[in-house]
Design goal:
Helices cover 42% and strands 0% of the residues. The protein contains 7 helices and no strands. It is elongated and about 70 Å long. The structure holds iron/sulfur cluster (SF4).
């Protein structure tokens, strides 16, 4: 067996800058821990500025949702149908006018149940009811290589990896194999918008296009 050589990670590291080269992790310690310990110490310690709010917290409700993914899948299908039936109402009021109140409710309901981050492009039905935006790396197509042996996150050791949970949740669901579909990158311009209204408007447009096509074919 030939000796394997470490692969340089970046060509842009300035020569002679010791802080530019992250130290390597000894066995049993994650790279994230090593980098954190090696970070310069200053008097300023930001309080809760992380977009992921990396503080110790309970994940009980989020994990309940994953465990009951089949029930939530069934419920969401009915909920989406009801929302679609109300499309004429949304349209007559104006989608832009109903957005604020719908978003208010969506943010609180999904925030409570899934720790939703309001990315505006909901993929819960494809991820076992585990929100991928809770991944500190915001990966939308499966876990990174840093999942711990106990199934927890490399970056947030107290948190179960959202993708480990996504796989578990998807195995309970009727359409759980949707987890194998490749998701598009997050469109950040849709942040803080209502996924419920977007999906409804898209479904209504598809329904109308199908009706027009059927009318055209029979004419
Ligand atoms: S995928 Fe996006 S919209 Fe759906 S729960 Fe997660 S952050 Fe919220």
């Amino acid at each position: 067996m030939p000796d394997t050589q470490p692969i340089p990670t970046t060509a842009s590291v300035p020569a002679g800058d010791p802080q530019a080269t992250p130290p390597s992790a000894p066995p049993g310690v994650t790279q994230a821990t090593v980098v954190k310990k090696a970070a310069p110490k200053t008097d300023y310690k930001p309080s809760d500025v992380s977009p992921q709010r990396r503080v110790q917290r309970s994940f009980a409700v989020r994990l309940w949702s994953v465990r009951h993914s089949r029930l939530l899948e069934w419920f969401y299908a009915r909920f989406a149908d009801a929302f679609l039936m109300l499309h004429p109402l949304w349209k007559s009021i104006g989608y832009s006018r109903v957005e604020a109140p719908v978003k208010f409710i969506e943010k609180r309901v999904k925030g409570f149940m899934f720790d939703c981050r309001m990315c505006g492009q909901c993929v819960l039905s494809s991820t076992g009811m585990s929100c991928p935006m809770n991944c500190p790396k915001q990966l939308r197509n499966g876990p990174c290589g840093g999942v711990r042996a106990n199934g927890h996150c490399e970056v947030e050791p107290d948190m179960p990896c959202v993708w480990v949970k996504a796989w578990e949740g998807s195995r309970n669901m009727v359409h759980g194999d949707a987890i194998l579909n490749v998701q598009k990158p997050v469109d950040q311009s849709l942040r803080e918008t209502s996924a419920w209204l977007r999906v409804t408007a898209q479904a209504a447009a598809a329904k109308e296009a199908a009706r027009n096509a059927a009318n055209g074919a029979s004419a």
